[in-house]
Design brief:
Order of helices and strands: EEHEHHH
Largest sheet: 3 strands, antiparallel
Number of helices: 4
Oligomer: single chain
CATH architecture: 3-Layer(aba) Sandwich
Pfam families: GIY-YIG
CATH topology: GIY-YIG endonuclease
Radius of gyration: 15 Å
Protein name: GIY-YIG nuclease family protein
Helix content: 25-40%
Family: Belongs to the UPF0213 family.
Number of strands: 3
Distance between the termini: 51 Å
Structural class: alpha+beta
Number of domains: 1
Strand content: 15-25%
Strand order of the largest sheet: 2-1-3
């Protein structure tokens, strides 16, 4: 069965890049070597793999990649650190729930 990976790398400028591949080792090596000069990570090397998820369905992997790409940096860090409480907190809609910085 073929595997697909959703992954997050930390770039040298402390930003995160989220991607999807069917060969995680090869793709990380490409990021590290600067395989494509027009890629996001090229000028932000070195990079470090921080998190990945293995999937068997490419459609599911693409969906998860797109979802994570829309997340804030702190939400990605909660996922990387397996901090489920913060992940839930950072997922709340603050137009419906008061922002945690403003709570008593």
């Amino acid at each position: 069965m073929k595997s697909y990976y959703v992954y997050i790398v930390l770039c040298s400028d402390n930003t995160y890049y989220t991607g999807m591949t069917n060969n995680l080792e090869r793709r990380i090596d490409q990021h590290k070597s600067g395989y494509r000069k027009d890629s996001y990570t090229y000028s932000r090397r070195p990079i470090e793999l921080k998190w990945y998820l293995q999937c068997t369905n490419p459609t599911e992997a693409i969906k998860i990649e797109k979802q994570i790409k829309g997340w804030s940096q702190r939400k990605k860090e909660a996922l990387i650190n397996e901090n489920w409480k913060d992940l839930i907190e950072f997922s709340k809609n603050y137009t419906e729930y008061e922002h945690p910085d403003n709570r008593k």
